[in-house]
Design a protein that fits this description.
Elements (H helix, E strand, L loop, with lengths): L2 E8 L3 H16 L7 E7 L2 E8 L2 H27 L1
Antiparallel strand pairs: 1-3, 2-3
Helix pairs in contact: 1-2
């Protein structure tokens, strides 16, 4: 049974949005294992991440990875903007 989820991120700056897209895009082209499909789309200051996986375990692990990466990237861009 397939499982899917869509997450919408809203960013406070265009720089954050571009940074996240550039970092995540290569991962969406060749996701590791589990036959997972990942699509990202951006509009205005938002990024939509849609994950489709063969089961909820694969969906959860993929979402956790993308959420951590997104958080790390936004934290880093904030830190660099503050210096």
């Amino acid at each position: 049974m397939k499982a899917s989820a869509t997450i919408l991120f809203t960013f406070s700056s265009e720089k954050q949005l571009r940074s996240v897209i550039r970092a995540l895009y290569p991962e969406t082209q060749d996701p590791t294992g589990h036959s997972v499909d990942i699509d990202i789309e951006s509009a205005d200051m938002s990024l939509s991440l849609k994950v489709t996986a063969p089961n909820t375990t694969a969906l959860r692990s993929t979402l956790n990875a993308y959420l951590r990466w997104t958080r790390s990237i936004t934290d880093l861009t904030r830190l660099l903007d503050d210096t």
